[in-house]
Amino acid sequence: MLVLGLAPAAHGGNRTGRVFTGDRSGDWLYGALWRAGFANQPSSVGKDDGLELLGAWITSAVRCAPPGNQPTPTERDSCAPYLVREVGLLQRLRVVVALGAFAWASAVRTLGAPSPRPRFAHGAEARVGGVLLLGCFHPSQHNTFTGRLTEPMMDAIFARARALVSLDQA
Question: Is residue 135 part of a domain?
């Protein structure tokens, strides 16, 4: 399973060297991954904290922290070859969880856009290039503080990803 985010946060992954590490979004993500059995511990504070992902990989569509969390089309396009290469290295990839609409659109472009293009929504599912794409609201403070994304909502997405990965391995 691949978890695809927007970009490393300036005070999280950009500072710590691991995406979604050392910030509140990461607290939500790693807790959900742990509860679904994709991580050996429920949090990550630094790249040497003992976290191990289990059957999962985390990356971002854009490789540097964009101003205001709004990557430009040039940034998106400049980073796209890195994402294509990274996804190509994940030989057993079956499920992609896209955190937010930007990550969803990047995944669709990277995996090979079907026609019509699937639309992002929390809980959306689409088969794209032989991979099942799952949509999840991004665990940003805006989404979590306002209740747009709750822990049970996020847990349901990763439980679905776990079930899909387990079915594929059976």
Answer: yes
Q: Which two tokens stand for residue 142?
A: 């805006």
Are 34 and 41 contacting, i.e. CB atoms less than 8 angstroms apart?
yes
Q: What is the pLDDT along the chain (170 residues), one digit of tens a residue?
A: 999 998 665 555 455 556 787 788 888 999 999 999 999 999 888 788 899 999 999 999 987 766 676 788 888 888 899 999 999 999 999 999 999 999 999 999 999 877 789 999 999 999 998 899 999 999 998 999 999 999 999 999 999 999 999 876 65
We report the CATH number of the domain holding residue 135 as 3.40.470.10
Nearest in space to 108 (alpha carbons), one of 100, 93, 118, 123: 118
Peptide bond into 116 cis (omega under 30): yes
> Which tokens go with 162?
């776990």
In a domain, 164, yes or no: yes
In a domain, 49, yes or no: no
DSSP states along 67-93? GGG---HHHHHHHHHHHHHHHHH-TT-
Boundaries of domain holding 132: 29-39+70-170
Q: How many domains does the chain have?
A: 1
Q: Do the domain assignments include residue 46?
A: no
- Which residue in this structure is represented by tokens 């306002």? 146
Tokens of 78: 């400049």
